[in-house]
Amino acid sequence: MARVRTALEPEALLDVCKAIEAERGRDFDAPRHSPRPLDLDLLLLGDLERSTGRLILPHREVTSRRFVMVPLLELDPELALPNGTRLEQELKSLDDGERVDRVGTLER
Predict the structure, then answer these.
(1) What kind and span of H or E run contains 51?
(2) Least-confidence region, from 34-43, 83-92, 93-102
(3) Cross-strand pairs, 57
(4) Domain locations along the chain
(5) CA–CA separation, 18 vs 25, rounded Å?
(6) Which CATH superfamily does the domain covering 10-27+39-93 fall into?
(7) Is 70 left (phi over 0), alpha (psi -120 to 50) or beta?
(8) How far is residue 21 CA from its own chain's centroid?
(9) In angstroms, rounded to a whole number, what is the distance separating the alpha carbons of residues 4 and 83?
(10) pTM higher than 0.85 for the full model?
(11) How much of the chain exceeds pLDDT 90, in percent?
């Protein structure tokens, strides 16, 4: 999980992410959900809401995945979606039985 500052437009930022994935050996022709060396997803971009053929912001599954929300809330405990939905509340209401364990330390 990483937080970045950028002046790039969303699709340009997505292009950079895809280029990094390709540099690291990701095969974009592989079946969906197959193993890959690197997977970069744009989850949120400030208060921006966007839906195009290539990109949906906020990411449509950001509030359904504990392994996404836990690290996001470590970066910002007050984080909310552009519509005002607080991720902390979404995490509390998630009843998925999933566990998230910290493996390393958070560096700022």
Answers:
(1) strand 50-51
(2) 93-102
(3) 50
(4) 10-27+39-93
(5) 11
(6) 7,8-Dihydro-6-hydroxymethylpterin-pyrophosphokinase HPPK (3.30.70.560)
(7) alpha
(8) 15
(9) 21
(10) no
(11) 72
